[in-house]
Amino acid sequence: MSQPPLPMAPLLPLADGHSIPQLGYGLYKVPPADAARLSLDAIALGYRHLDTAAFYGNEREVGEAMRAAPVPREELFVTSKVWKDDNGYDETLRAFDDSMARLGLESLDLYLIHWPVPSTDRYVETWRALVSLQQEGRVRSIGVANFHPHHLERIVGETGVAPVVNQVELHPWLPQSQLRAFDAAHGIRTEAWSPLARGRVLGTPLLDDLAAKHDRTPAQIVLRWHVQLGNVVIPKASSAARIRENLDVFGFALDAADLAAIATLETGERTGRDPDDD
């Protein structure tokens, strides 16, 4: 790939003393056959944050890309997640071993509980396993995904350890204002999956207008909105051109009127499940 890299995303501090690149490449629904190539494209363009999971089926290819990349391992940040079928203490430890074998890495930067699954009531045990993995030095940072405040309160109350990241569905239709405020008050970084509502929010005329105002694409407007909210954001893309476009959001800013206009798009609509319904 001949295009020069873009400016890298800023590093945001985490409560455990580590840091996370604010914008990463999300690999949900990236086929394994494409994952290594697209991950390498992302790294070549300036990404340093790759987000995968056991459920995505592409951990092996992400690991291959990291080993092939002309970038020192310590400059790359990789996240994986324990799938909900493996919630539980011993099950999570085994799942972590399996993920690390597929990734082919000696250590992981961030490991998340993928879903709390309150119907099985095993997410506290799962969290205890993540705490153990961190204490053993096998993962630097630990967090959760799709946790409501009451899930967070429970794991902190029962273990005394707070996650440093909560990765949740978050986009202009579902800005998660109360959850973001809760996370911030407890030293938890909010990370947005489905940051473009699976692309569906991009048909909004308001975003077209803002894109024209800033000479950007609607996707760049939404990703810049995430950045200015302070979210970590992990857009998925299936081409090098789109991967590049998604990272190119640090050279402009939305003004107060833009942010107020985007706030009017809130509907509460989800593209995925409510974590309490699982």
TrEMBL record:
UniProt feature coiled coil, ranges: none
Site (Lowers pKa of active site Tyr): 81
Active site: 56
Record domain NADP-dependent oxidoreductase: where: 29-264
Keyword Oxidoreductase attributed: yes
Protein name stated in the entry: Aldo/keto reductase
Record organism: Agromyces albus
GO MF entries: oxidoreductase activity, acting on the CH-OH group of donors, NAD or NADP as acceptor
